[in-house]
Amino acid sequence: MHTIEKERGSVYCGAAIWDRLIEILEEKKFSKIVILVDENTKKHCLPLLKKNHLSKFTFKTICIPAGEAHKTIATCTKVWQQLSDLGADRNSLLINLGGGVVTDLGGFVASTFKRGIEFINIPTSLLAMVDASVGGKNGVDLGHLKNQIGVIKNPLAVFVFIEFLKTLPKSERRSGYAEMLKHGLIASEEYWESLKDFDTTNTETTEAFIWESIKIKNEVVTKDPTEKGLRKTLNYGHTLGHAIESYFLENPEKATLLHGEAIAVGMVLANYISAEKEGFPQQKLLATTTTFLSIYNRVAFNQTDVEEIIKLLKFDKKNTNGNINFVLLEDFGKYVIDKVVDNTVIHQAFAFYKNFKI
């Protein structure tokens, strides 16, 4: 079992984690245990958890619709009401069993219900395992704008069980892979290179790769828990990536992009801007772009799309005093933060992405 022990937010990964979960539940003697799932994890993940690991405990279940479109205050209101109807009190526990939507929203619900109840995250998607599992960010979207409402509070603990990945379609695994590639860009060229061998059908190596990403993110958030500097690097590619994701989410003429699909585009754009503004090596720009475009289908953008995406940048949470702040790279693991980028360079980045030949 892999372990990161903390006062709050300890992370456990591996087949032996369930004994630790049972220890916590027996030790805390919660008045009520409620499991939050979505339609997919209720069907594919909850039976495994119930049968093998929670059979000795009594618990209730709350189910929300699956998908980013339901990561809203309206969904929170329904969950708060159901918690109240179930008689949940301040000594209750909410277990969030799901991907990033469930863990983000569930953490926010728990942090605000009765001014805060305990919660445990059990991420079931690759994206949630390597991203939402560490750092304590909880929240929801505001309309189509990503993660505008939320709090930072670590769960009581996080349990990462690789077997849940078998319940995911390939597209969802590929989405989470983007965040792992981001960890390589911001922290370790060696890790980036090793990720080219990432294969989720190999449970042992998959666990090792996921644990490396968890360690990278944990090191960052431990040094900068409130995002004053270093933690902003975890948003690499997300300034434009989130704007792209939001634009495709709100536009009925566009097919919705998964988070990782949008962030992959955002990282290609960020790498180009980094090369222009901070000297990110040209050879590495070409190599990383080739990698991204070999994994993720190229997304089509017309001029109007780009203009509308740029307009959405003003809602990015890293902005200060009206400035749109980017995280950029001088090289793998060498970052600069709070860099203002003019629209001309952003347009050039989209043109580079559109015209790049593999």
UniProtKB/TrEMBL annotation:
One GO BP: chorismate biosynthetic process
EC numbers for this chain: 4.2.3.4
Record Pfam families: DHQ_synthase, DHQS_C
MF terms in GO: 3-dehydroquinate synthase activity; metal ion binding; nucleotide binding
GO cellular component: cytoplasm
Cofactor needs: Zn(2+); NAD(+); Co(2+)
Keywords, sorted A to Z: Cobalt, Lyase, Metal-binding, NAD, Nucleotide-binding, Zinc
Domain 3-dehydroquinate synthase N-terminal: residue ranges: 62-173
Domain called 3-dehydroquinate synthase C-terminal: residue spans: 176-319
Lineage: superkingdom: Bacteria
PANTHER family for the chain: 3-DEHYDROQUINATE SYNTHASE
Function description: Catalyzes the conversion of 3-deoxy-D-arabino-heptulosonate 7-phosphate (DAHP) to dehydroquinate (DHQ).
Name the UniProt record assigns to this protein: 3-dehydroquinate synthase
Organism this protein belongs to: Marinirhabdus gelatinilytica
